């Protein structure tokens, strides 16, 4: 026993495609809404993106614009992620990276060494902070 499905008539004329369900709300909106800012050639240039204030360290970029992050094998097969070109208070950056990666690490001259392979996490953190 098969039941006949009820069919919907779609052959009728459709309403205009420009009709929106929000058209009825046009009269109810307040008059003092802010207008969208339109970009023109007369706008002053935006300020450069600077590292957040209060950070007293920075990381130099390579010539290609990336970070100098490498993974090295050490004695007994241990792996270490090395972030080079750290200037300023590298100890603060080291503490943040150690906490974010959940790994031990050390600051040596102008580089930070973290135990394990954390290249992607370090790069994501530096890009997020705008360094």
Q: Let me know the number of strands.
A: 6
- Compute the number of helices: 2
CATH class (first level) name of the domain at 67-129: Alpha Beta
> Order of SSEs, N→C?
EEEEHEEH
Task: Please state how the strands of the largest beta sheet are arranged side by side.
Answer: 2-3-6-5
- Structural class by SSE content: alpha+beta
Distance between the termini: 71 Å
Coarse morphology = elongated
Instruction: Give the amount of beta strand, in percent.
Output: 15-25%
Question: TL;DR of this structure?
Answer:
It is built from 2 helices and 6 strands.
Give an overview in words.
The protein is built from 2 helices and 6 strands; from the N terminus they run E-E-E-E-H-E-E-H. Strand 2 (69-73) and strand 3 (79-84) form a beta hairpin. The termini are far apart. The protein has a domain at 67-129: 2-Layer Sandwich (Translation Initiation Factor Eif1). It has helices spanning 90-101, 119-129; strands at residues 57-59, 69-73, 79-84, 86-88, 105-108, 111-115. The model has no long low-confidence stretch (mean pLDDT 78). It has a 4-stranded antiparallel sheet with strand order 2-3-6-5, with helices on one face. A two-stranded antiparallel sheet has the order 1-4. Helices cover 18% and strands 20% of the residues. The protein has 131 residues and is of the alpha+beta class.
């Amino acid at each position: 026993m098969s039941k006949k499905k009820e069919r919907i008539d779609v052959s009728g004329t459709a309403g205009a495609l420009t009709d929106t369900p929000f058209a009825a709300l046009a009269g109810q909106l307040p008059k003092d809404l802010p207008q969208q800012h339109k970009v023109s050639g007369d706008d002053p240039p935006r300020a450069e993106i600077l590292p957040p204030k209060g950070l007293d360290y920075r990381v130099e970029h390579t010539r290609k614009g990336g970070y100098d992050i490498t993974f090295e094998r050490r004695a007994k097969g241990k792996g270490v992620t090395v972030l080079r070109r750290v200037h300023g208070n590298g100890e603060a950056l080291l503490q943040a990276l150690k906490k974010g990666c959940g790994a031990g690490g050390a600051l040596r001259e102008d580089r930070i060494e973290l135990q394990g392979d954390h290249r992607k996490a370090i790069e994501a953190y530096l890009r997020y902070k705008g360094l």
